[in-house]
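User: Run a structure prediction on this.
Assistant: Running it now.
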Amino acid sequence: AVVSTQNTGEIEKTRSSGKGVPSLKKVHEKEVVKVTDQAEIIKCLTFCCFGEKLVTVGEDKAINIWEYPSLVRRWRITQHLSEVTQVTAHTMGEPEIVSATRGSECFVWDVETGLQKQQLRYNGGVQNAKYRYRNIRYGASGDTFYAVIVPIAWNNKTSSSHLVKYDTTTEIWTVIREQTVRGEPLAELAISSDESFVSTSSSNGHVYIFDAHSLGLRRRVFEAHGLFVTGLSFTSTHTDTQFKLLSVSADRECKVHNPHIADPVRFLKAAAVLLLCIGLIYLLFCLLQSSDLLPHFDDFDEDPIKKDHHHGHSHHGEL
């Protein structure tokens, strides 16, 4: 199985038919690294320890840890009972990885020893329901860990997805933040490099952007794609310090979203609530005035001094 490719960067570009969009024609390969001791199809992989080790997961549910680039197998972990779907490495080079399966298993491993450090369990949500870690990522500093957790048996009417943030600085990781999205199965997960934003997506094509610190919803792009989202990634350029979010989907579209722009729907909702409050206050004022509980404005039209002077003249005339 081919697991790593390096190229010279010499790319020939051609014009695709009809739209004139540059496309890759040929990449001159410099080195192709192959794993010869793993016969199973590789389902997922990641580098860890600043590229000194390679972690691969095959169809046999086993986690293989290799020295890189020699590809000498260091450990083979066979503790998982169901198919491993996710594996992620510590972002600051610590010898630590986390793996998750289609079942409820989510383990933290020591890469140096090949031993399990702890098992993550989700205790929130509906009582007696079984949940699985659908997507997992370390935060930028490695001191935090994010997970998208969904029920194993999904029900469109009652089920909810959960975005959970862990504190990894303690021996036993603890949940410090949680955000619930009702009625939508979340899938993808991305974190900006400065850990300002966290993004996830649903199978309905919606894209969510959260504040990484509080997990408060910052923006929801309703039906960003016509089909389910297959990938999310934050990016920024050298001239633009603000992050942009890229989303790709099975609808063959790639879209760019700005997490710095607040959700217009939330703004409109807040404006509507404010106008409703003003309208209710005005209606209450009118009802009180019509029931004579408040003085009418006509009572204040006449100047009191002139009114007393008028009454004095009338009394003098009677005498």
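The radius of gyration is 31 Å.
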